[in-house]
Each structure stands twice: as structure tokens, then as C-alpha cells.
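User: For a benchmark we're assembling, each entry needs the component sequences followed by a predicted structure for the full assembly. Here are entry 17's components. Please fill in the structure.
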Amino acid sequence: MIAKFKDNWEAILLTVVVVISLILSGIVWVNPYRSDHRFFGDNGTSTSRQITTQSMRDIYLPTQVIKTNGDQGQHLLYGQSSNAVLTARESIEKWRFHRLTRIQSGREKNYLNYLRLNNSIMLSYPSSVPMTIFNDSFNQDLNVNSLNKVDHIVIPLDTGNKISRIYLLSDDNFRVFRLKVDHANVKAIRQSLKGGSSISVDHKIFDGKPIVTYPHGVKLPNFGYQITKINPDSISQTLMNNTSKRSTVTSQQENGHVIYQGGTSRRLTYDSNKGTLDYENYIGQTDHFSYQQIYGHLYNMLAGTGVPLDSLRYDTYSNKNEAITYRSFVEGFPIFNDQGYGTVQIQNNQDGAERYHFSLYSLQVPVAVNNKKTSLPSSAVVFNGLRNAGKLKEITGMRIGYDWKTNQGSNVVTLTPTYYLRYRGNWENYENLIN
Amino acid sequence: MNFKRIQWIFIIAFVLLDIGLCVSLLMGTQFHNTGKQQSQTQITLKEMKNDLISVGPLSDKRRNGYYTAAQSNKAWTSNNRVNQLRGQTARFNDGIVNSTFQKNIKLRTGASQQQQLDKVVHSNLILHGKQYSYNEDLSTAKQIVYTQTIKDQPVLDREGQIKFHVNNNHEVTGYTQGYLSEFKILRPRAMTISQQQAVTWLYRHNQINNNSRITHVIFGYSKIQKNGNQVVFVPIWTVNVKNKAGGSAQSLRVNAFSGIPFKMSINN
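Assistant: Structure for entry 17:
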């Protein structure tokens, strides 16, 4: 046997190197994403890079911070001047995790126990993000095949300033993954939770998904902003000149609409009454992106619009339309406006055209407002109101957000908190729903 | 050629191929990501060099910034009050104290300006003096500047500064003072653009002339909005540019949150 092996060792060696090269070629072949990061980083379009203040890893950050005490009592934190989310990122990006281990899936009750993990801090995304996005924001390299998307990051704080594990949670099938880490320092995270304000919250499974509920009435402050307006002409220039194919932009007016046409394929429609903008770019062939890739692609399109990104964050992804809604947030709370001000929708080219929907108005510069607080009822009262109005069955989500009331005359706006319900797929103001 | 030799050639060829594939995989995941952005800034810095714009090393670190409100009250003190200040003749007008020392303060060479003036500023010779700190970047041979601070960063508007006048004999003859009160952080910490970004973005907006020298790039706060006495401060980068041919200097300002440049004269 050994003699035979000795005689043929060159042939065996050759076989081994051939097999290795086949395996490596296979990896390069099926995983082009790994060796091609063209959808990543701060770069906008490749030919003329847009100047953006918020890189991809900022836009796709968690927005909500919930602290759980020893008795599973939960508090949503806001107004901590050191910014708990940024502080957590600055800590986590230095940690080196061992591997992802699935510790449970499919069981609602166990999942709720992890959402309410004693003595922990939880950072939550407004809706799931692909693992590649988590990796990018937190400077990690976790396997996207073990866990493809993330909703919550749970950091236990029960063992002093050094911790040895964190959890990643995916609402999809109630999956909980554990990440081991060596002596990760959580001192800065602990510090960042001090000061500011908090409101009492809880978690509940609603319509097959966990939601944050407010067991007691809450009082929240109003926030003031100066409204920033962008110029539709400069937006049209930015949108239509961002490729190597420069084209002259023509514009024509038509009962309250200005239509900018760039070449034959690009069209921007500005509604001068509402202040909204719709952009379409007909490409012809369709672009296909995997779930892991499309967030980067859509961010690059967002960065190419020239819209101020200061207070924008990722809000929701629609799998059907391959579209992301980016929304303005104030201290972790989403901002809603009935004309869609402060949100940008970017739709991937899946039927031959890319489509953007946004507006001229955004919120950047805060102004001080009086210290008045607005009182909101508990979520039980809200659900009762909806039941009485006969609308509870079509509700699929609930959250507290801030209402930006459109007032054309003023360039300062006071945002007031209220409940928003996901009704027939859209976020609607509670007051509007029950009246 | 015998079979053995061919076999060896194949083995070597495949080993080389394996090494090549490994390298490309590792390089792709590790270095590609950050490399691209670095080079973009490097390209712009190179372009600036070609346009004869000189600049010292710039940091690519983003800073912490806070939107902050303050009161800019034109009546923060009164003539009555400033008349009582010892050792000086002071007048209060339009929110600014204008004062001349009765006896000039001689600045000794050797000892630091800051140490000598700190004693004056932090004494009761100056109203609210303890709230101001020395700023080396803003000070020149003719003028020594103290500023109020927001989270340890200087206020770059005269409403929050004390400017000491220095004569040719290195004597401080007097000062002008503005004052802001009731600083209040409006929003939690956010990240600003870096020093490098501020300069390269100004350049790409064609704000920096050819054949000039960038002398200072200073981080601080400047008012962006005013509503009655209420002002809102935003972090900014101030880029001081000097023409190499003539002596003319200008101060370019960039909003460090939005990256949008705006122009202002150096003697604001």
C-alpha cells in the first residue's frame, strides 16, 4: 500500500492541486460579490461621485434603543446626547466575533424572551436588513449563509464591563443567533445610556411579527425644525448628468408640472403645487440584484440624487417592488408627512426603468421649541379605538412617529408625536383612521 | 519529453494557479473596500497640487458634532455694569463690550501668551471670563482670541469671542467682547465630515483659487439660524486660504454636517 503510494505520489499531488483549483474557481464563480465590492463604500455613481455626508454605513444604522432591566421591564431611550447607536457602533466595530450559532428558531415565546433579555440593551432596525449591511455598518465579516437578515442586536450588560456574547435576532421565523466574542468592552455603551429620557415599552407578537407596545400612556416632547428646500433645476442637472453619457436637459411646463427631459431615457416630473418630484430612467434591460446586494445598489442611487441625507435613515424594503423607503428620523422616531416630504423612495430597475419619488423639502436644522410635551394614550387604547372603528383586522403594524404638518406659509415646522398604524400596507395617522 | 516531466509541469502550473486564485479572493475581501474611497480623495489632493494649491497634512477623521441653541441677547450686560470694571474704560454697544486698559498689559517674551492672559480673562476684570478659552489658531501677532465653547470646540463668531488688541510693543491695549448664554444641545451627537473632506469638497466647488496656500483648517461652531435672540449653532470647518502672489487672505466656511460651503470675509 505504502509502496504504491510512494510510486504514484506525483500523480496524487497533481490530483490534489487540480481539485483545489477547481474549488477555488468555484468560489470565485458562485460568489462574485465577495471579490467585487463595487456596490459598497462611500462611492456614489462611478463616473461622477456625489458628495454625501452620510455614507452607506450611516444610512443603514439601527434607529431604536431599548433597555431592559433585571425584571424584563423595558424602556425606549431617546435624547441621550452621546447617541447610543453611534457609540454602540464605535464599540462593536472593534470586536472580533467567533462564529454565528443558531440557538433557537420558530418559537414565539422564546423569541420574546430574547427581545426582553434581562439587563440588556437592544438596537433595532425599522425593518430587516441583509447581513451584508450589518457587516458593512459594524465592520464585521459574518457569514450571510448562516443568517441572511437581521432585525435586532441584543447586547447583554449583566457581567460588568466585559462581555463574552451578543445576540442577533431575525423576526423572520423568530431566529436567535449567538455571537461569541472575547472580552468585549461595553463601558462606553453603558455610559452612552445615561442622561436623556425614556418611555416604558413592551413587546408583543402582532400579526405574526413582534412589535413594540406602550403599556402606559406616554408623554413625548415636540421637536422643531427649519425646512430646507432644494432647487428642482439643480436636482435635474444632478440626476441627468451623473453618467458618462451627458445629455442636454430640456424642460417644459404643463398645468402645474415641470417636466425635465434628459435625452430620451430620463424624465423628472416636478409637481410645483405639492413640491414633489418623480424621476424615471428607462434603461431597457433589467438589472438583477440579490437581496444581499440590492441595499448597496439602492444606496448608490440615493446618493446620486443630490438630496440632503442628513436626517435620512433606511426605513422599509419592499421585496415586490425592489424598492427602499428612506425616511427622516428625529431621535430615533420616524417622521411622517401626508405629502411624503422628508422621505425618498428608490425603486430598482426590474421592469426596464429605475424610479425615484421624493420632494424638495427636508429637515436638517433643528430649532428650539417650547418644552411642551404631547400625551399619547397606551397602545391598548389605540387597539380598542381601531377595533371600534372596524379597522383592526387590516392593521399590520404600529409605531409612534412624528407628524410633519404641511404648512406652505412657514419655513419652520413643529413636529408632534402620534401613533401610526400600518393599514392596507401604508402608514396612517391614528387620528385619521378612527375618524 | 517523458510522462514524468509533463506531470511536473502540470503540478507547477496548477500550484501557481491556486496561489493566484487565493490571492485574488483574499485581496477582494480585505482591501478592495476601503481602497477605492481613499484613492478618490488622493486624486483630488493630487489635482489640487497640480493647481499649485499647497496644503499641510489633513486628517481624515470625522468629528463629533451637535446642533446647539444659545441666546444672543444684545442686552446681556449694560453700560452701568461695564463702567464698574476695574482698570479699564469700557463701553457697551450693540451687544459688544469695547474696552481699553488704563495700563497696557506687557506680554513677556518667553512665557506663553496664554498663561499670561488666562490670569486676566479668568479674573473679574472680564465679565463671564471663566467661560472663555484661549484659541491659538485664531490668534495672530496683532490679536489674541478667546472663545466660548460648545462641547470643548470654539465658537467661531464674534458673539462668542473676546479679541485682545496687541500693539507693536507686545502690549495688550484693550479688547472687544461678545457673549452668548444658555447653551442647549438640541440633538444627540452626529458625525461631521473630516478635515480632508472639507478641503477637497471646497476645491471641487471651485472655491479655492489656484496658486494659493491653505494656512489653517479649523473646526468650531457658527450660527446657522437666528430667530429673535435665539440662535442655532452648527459645526463648521473654516478654511483659511492665502494667495501666494499677493497677501490677500480669505476665510472659507463649510457646514460640517451638510458639506455645503458658504463664503464669509475673514474679519467677521
